[in-house]
Amino acid sequence: MDEEIRIAVVGTGDVAMDHAAALTAPGPVRARIVAAADTDRARLDAFLAKHGAPAGYDDLDVLLDRARPDLVYLCTPPGLHRDQALACLHSGASVLVEKPPALSLREFDEIAGAASGPPWFATVFQHRFGRGQAALKSLAASGALGRPLLAVCHTTWFRDQSYFDVPWRGRWDTEGGGPTMGLGIHQMDMMLDLLGEWTEVQAVTRTQARRTETEDVSMAHVTFANGAVASVVNSSLSPRQESYLRYDFEYATVEVTHLYGYRDEDWRVTPAPRHDRVLTEWKAAMTGPQDAGAAHNSRSGHWAQFAKVLSGLREGTAPPVPLAESRRTLAMVAALYASGASGHPVKPSDVSPGTPFYDSMSGRRAASS
């Protein structure tokens, strides 16, 4: 694909307003927003005015037929993702979807079955693409940090009752969960991007303070195939908000503290005794040549991932994040809910097809579609 990439944005609320411009930012691939859709006309008109899209629709099928986009950016509530993604893929348009990609593993697998590519399907997990994450992955892969031993992955945010009172939030059938699914999934995906395959989850889920069908806090112990163990906390009840990831390797501790997006200066490296060389290697990894997505972005954000998505479309290759890796993150969320409900450790096979938590994050059997 050598010509300009045509983009449609579906769902024009705050997320689209804030991040759609990253799709058309100056870069190696030319792209243009040609259409947008929303059921709220005032919200749609505001988006069209801000982002210069020439056509607005209240019906996705009509948009797909008339605008013929190459890529659809889905910024709608999670309960709409499966049907909308399938409609786009069946029309020949690739899909970039905000998290979570689907309400369940069953829904995700339905989407993946239609996205063997092209057209393609990718989830927005922008924290993978900042310079700090790229440097950490590079050093870990090289062996410079030694074996990963222990991790901490905390998303401790604050959402008051009005947040949960939005009709589609805090419901299994429309959001797919509470802060584990809707908030902490970004930090958990960062952790999995580094540590790889998980093998067991032991969790607690609670509704401590909010009126909601789902949890408002969760805690988990996660074991990885490489032998590392992690403590995971997801909260919507924490007045001092923080996103915190810590990795204790044999030769160093690496940490990042941020809220909704990290900068280079948010990362800290503490070498183990007699391993000061790690600091030199970290500095080199943060300043040396890197891939195009990370090198142009000193903080995590949508631009770096979107640039790679557009490059993939132009080159005819699958955009990041790979389907298998996006599914791995969603499977860990399902395992956390399954363990929280049962009180027992959960392995990947416990959220495989034919099990209740494959069909729904609540463990309820999904109705046949």
Describe the structure concisely:
The chain starts with a strand and ends in a 10-residue tail after the last helix.
3D structure, described in words:
The chain is α/β, with parallel strands linked by helices. Helices cover 35% and strands 23% of the residues. The strands form 2 sheets. It has a 7-stranded mixed beta sheet. Residues 292-296 have low confidence and may be disordered. It holds the Pfam family GFO_IDH_MocA. This is Gfo/Idh/MocA family oxidoreductase. It comes from Streptomyces spinosisporus.
Outline the secondary-structure elements:
Elements: E1 5-10, H1 14-19, E2 31-37, H2 41-51, E3 56-57, H3 60-67, E4 71-74, H4 81-91, E5 94-97, H5 105-113, E6 121-123, H6 131-142, E7 148-158, H7 161-165, H8 179-182, H9 185-195, E8 198-206, E9 217-224, E10 229-235, E11 237-249, E12 252-258, E13 267-271, H10 277-287, H11 292-295, H12 302-315, H13 323-342, H14 356-359
Helix percentage: 25-40%
The radius of gyration over CA amounts to: 20 Å
- At the fourth level of CATH, the homologous superfamily of the largest domain is Dihydrodipicolinate Reductase, domain 2
Low-confidence stretches: 292-296
Give the C-level CATH assignment of the largest domain: Alpha Beta
Overall mean pLDDT score? Answer: 94
Number of helices: 14
What's the number of extended β-strand segments? 13
Terminal CA distance: 35 Å
Major β-sheet strand ordering: 8-9-10-7-11-12-13
> What sequence of helices (H) and strands (E) makes up the elements?
EHEHEHEHEHEHEHHHEEEEEEHHHHH
| Broad structural category | alpha/beta
Described by strand count, sense and barrel closure, the largest sheet is:
7 strands, mixed
Query: What's the domain count?
Result: 2
Fold-level CATH name of the largest domain: Dihydrodipicolinate Reductase, domain 2
CA-based shape = globular
CATH architect. name of the largest domain? 2-Layer Sandwich
DSSP strand content: 15-25%
